[in-house]
Amino acid sequence: MTNTLKSSLVHIGDWLSGKISNEGSNDDALLRTAEAENRWFTPHFSKTAMLACGNMLQEEKLDEWMSRYAAINQKRSPKRVGLVLAGNLPMVGWHDVLCVLISGHHAVIKYSTNDRVLISTTLNEWVKHHPQMAAQIEVTQGKVEGVDAVIATGSSNTNRYFDYYFRRIPRILRSQRTSIAVLSGNEPPDELRALGHDVFTYYGMGCRSVTQLFVPANFDLNRLFSVWTEWAYLSENNKYANNYDYHKAIWLLNQEVLIENGFLLMKEDTGFFSPVGTLYYAFYDELEAVQDLLLSHSDQIQCIVTGNSTDWSEGRIPQVAFGQSQNPNPWDFADGVDTMSFLLELSSPE
Asked: Are 122 and 97 in contact (CB under 8 A)?
């Protein structure tokens, strides 16, 4: 990585982190525009996402990240890499865009209609400080065609189409995942409060959002409600409230046993993917049984939130501390696939 590229990345990190007055995550007009395009993208959550992305670009983190790739400084012929971005969270596709551009390839970007503002504005700011980058960026409104590789995110059904359509080129296909929390029952209130960030940030719609809790058989779930009151404002969002009301009505008709507090429905369920406005929980007697279950479903789990030192996944599923699931480092790749290695292997050094 050249010094010029590195300094431009550090600048973008500062811009995203709100260290520049009235710009980036401090630009109220930008945050309002993002919300106007997608009502899930409230200014608070857009700013949260931008801060997390900016945190990845601190100079010391960039140095640590790039030190893992001896090939990063080798000159190579650039490839055209298609990017079909998701739009369920603000800035959710930024990391893939970042990896493609840092690795020296050309990014052919197809934005999600739900997230067309924040990433494009960030790229425009980057180009201002690193004009050479403009030649590496192409935006398409139609099909992603004429590319040498692709990174695409979609549902399981969409990915079957992607797998066929892009069958002749190298590809990373991301599908739906979620995150799990495993409690020991001995967590102090501050850890349970921090868990609220893992559950509620971005309305619980991300792959790093906790949608299933495993708790010991004698755990009092009211301990959670008592420290999660700060999230009650989520019910002010009509989309969130409609989800809450809909699932409450359906589950009551089905005579399900529910626990609720006006902004969260909790239901005992073995499923991993709870709907928006809800949270599944399951009681356990033996931690080993939970570990076996998670290992058998590792392809559905993005990360495990826990304060327990047990290796839940034998290295196959990342483990994070309470409150940290939405703050990945740049080397915490989605689905455990090293995007940078994939990109650097697309072409041989010259």
From this structure: no
Residues 76, 156 within the same domain: yes
Cα 293 from Cα 300, distance rounded (Å): 11
Each residue of 154-199: pLDDT tens digit?
Answer: 887 888 889 999 999 999 999 889 999 999 999 999 999 999 999 9
101 in the same domain as 33: yes
The DSSP string of 41-107 is --HHHHHHHHHHHHHHT-HHHHHHHHTT-GGGGS-B---EEEEE---SSTTTTHHHHHHHHHTTPEE
pTM more than 0.85: yes
**134 and 210 part of one domain:** no
Can you tell me the distance from the alpha carbon of 5 to that of 299, in angstroms, rounded to the nearest whole number?
35
Amino acid code (one letter) for 168: R
- The reply to whether 165 and 202 lie within a common domain is no
CB contact at 8 A, 182 and 304: yes
If you search the block for the tokens 């596709």, which residue do you land on?
93
335: in domain? no
As given in the structure block, the two tokens for residue 47 are 């700013």
